[in-house]
Each structure stands twice: as C-alpha cells, then as structure tokens.
Amino acid sequence: MDWAMLLQLPSTLLGILAVLALLFALVQLVALRQRLQARRPVAALLRTLFLLVGLALALVLAGAGWSLRGYRLLGEEAPVVTLDARILSPQRWAVTLVWPDGQTRVVGVAGDAWRVEALVLKWKLPALLSGLPPLYRLDRLSGRYDDPAEEASAPRTVVDLRQAGAFDLVALARRHPDWLPLVDTVYGSGAYLPLVDGGHYTVSLMRTGALVARPDEDTAERIAHPL
After folding, report:
1. Own/partner pairs for 23-32, CB < 8 Å, 24+ apart?
2. Of 31, 126, 134, 211, which residue is 20 to 30 A from 225 by alpha carbon distance?
3. Is the separation of the CB atoms in 160 and 82 below 8 Å?
C-alpha cells in the first residue's frame, strides 16, 4: 500500500485494524506459551514469528493512523477575520473588518493592497499531532503600495489590531520560554492581497501557523482583470 492510498483511509479504521493486529499478536503469545510447555520447539518458533508479525503490523497501523490524524489536522483552517473594501479616492480605502465573533471595525487604509500580520505560537510536534491548534494574536493591518518607490515615500497607514488588556500567552512564551516547554516557536505571519472597490476577502490560519488570504470569486475576477 502506498502513502497516497493510506492517507485516504480514515484514522479510526486504521486504529481498529491496529487493535485487531494486536489481538492477533496476543493469541500468538498464548499459543507460543502452550507450544513451549509442550516442548515443541519448531511450532514455538513458528508462533514466535507470527507474534512478531502481529506486533509489527499493530505498530505500523497505529503509527499510520496517528500520522494520518496529524496530517488532517495540519490541513484544517480556522477563520481569523474577513475584510470588505470600499474606495474613497485613488489609493485611499475604507476597510471593514469582521471577526468570527461578530465584532466589526472600520479603518482607513492607504495604498494598492492591504496586509494583515499576526504573531503565531506554534506547538511542538507531539502537542500538534494530538490536536492542539496553534495560537495567534492579530497584530496589525497596513496598506501596501505596488511601486517600491511609493512604498518608501507615500503616506503609510498602520492599524493596531491588538486588544489592550488581554492576557498575552504569545508574549509570555517569547519572554519566558522555559515556562511553556511544549512551545516550539513564536513568529510573525502575514498575508496581503490587492484592494478593489467592493472587494471581499477572508483570512484564515492553517494549523501549520501560516496566514492565508483569499478573495471571493467576484473579487478574484476583478483582481485578475482590473478596469
């Protein structure tokens, strides 16, 4: 069986097969003890072989199921924020942010594109595969110019998205890494897309800790074919 086929199997099925393989190994262990008591070395050797095969198969199936669960978790995405853009004047925009809990905020952005940045706390592999998702804290929303010369000289907008007074586990992990031994790293992640009038965008966080920005179908069409 190749890995492509294995990844299509549900992890629960692989777990059940691992339990069955383990039961097979236990049956062989009982049979091995009986053969040894009966002083039948050849039969005992055969049961030993079956026992090792059963144990190896149980370990492989259990490991495959665990790995498959981990890969599925890494493929999940959590919604972070949605953005709706409305043009005010050339390179000046009103952007409405909507959080998953329904909180909204309207801010002004200058430039040709928007960029969202966040701090991400990523767990070490055992905690990640067990289902513990990465943590994040939105940091800022800023405008971005297509022309590097404009980026250096034109007015810039940076909007602070941090929540004042909130308990900051990300900052705690950076200042006192020994307090949280399961933390792998804390790093910045960002995503940006061009601004279009009436554009609608979604930002989500993958379990790998990467921010992903996507326009809806109509917005993507206008980005690809600007007027």
Report:
1. 24/50, 24/54, 24/57, 25/50, 25/51, 25/54, 25/55, 25/58, 26/54, 28/54
2. 211
3. no
First-to-last C-alpha distance (Å) of the chain = 52
3-state secondary structure labels for all residues of the chain: CCHHHHCCCCHHHHHHHHHHHHHHHHHHHHHHHHHHHCCCHHHHHHHHHHHHHHHHHHHHHHHHHHHHHHHHHHHCEEEEEEEEEEEEECCEEEEEEECCCCCEEEEEEECCEEEEEEEEEEECHHHHHCCCCCEEEEEEEEEECCCHHHHHHCCCCEEECCCCCCCCHHHHHHHCHHHCCCEEEEEEEEEEEECCCCCEEEEEEECCCCEEEEECHHHHHHHHCCC
Three-class DSSP labels, 129-169: HCCCCCEEEEEEEEEECCCHHHHHHCCCCEEECCCCCCCCH
CA distances from 28 to 36, 59, 93, 186 (A): 12, 16, 72, 49
